[in-house]
Amino acid sequence: MMDRRVLVTGATGFIGGAVCRQLAAAGYTVHAVYRTAGRPPVPSLPVRTWHPHEGTDASMRRLVAEAAPETIVHLAAHLAGPAGDGDVQALVDGNVLLGAQLLAAATATGCRHVVTTGTYWEYLAGSQAVSLYAALKQAFAPVVQYHCDAFGMRALTLALYDTYGDGRGHDRRAARRE
Hints:
Elements: E1 5-9, H1 14-25, E2 29-35, E3 49-53, H2 57-67, E4 71-74, H3 88-109, E5 113-119, H4 132-151, E6 154-160, H5 172-177
Parallel strand pairs: 1-2, 1-4, 2-3, 4-5, 5-6
């Protein structure tokens, strides 16, 4: 069997952890990114290697080169209230800058397949974003399209409706008993 490598961002989150488990169960070798200033790696996940990202272009390029994925699943994001709640820098960094660094590193290292996520908040008022988070998700879409047009990247963007998760499983009653 070929070593099918995938690199996952957002693996420390609820959806990212579930995606890592599903990919490993399907036979993929899972590598994951964690931000050194964010949540630490989750040892219980079936991740071959956790790659630290220090926030720089060079750090991202190095970790993508080390992981050598055939596909990247970019799930990392930062969410805040409608106006950003005083966390605008984190919103831009988590929803635009991180993805732009990731795509630049992917093209520099030869990875041409990426899955990204959007949000239904981008479409609640037609094409008008209803929050700064949604506007930044919309702002990232042309960055993805640029990499597709300029470098032959193949991308799929999943618009997620909503998520729930406390990181301890799907059964909220069981999570409350712990």
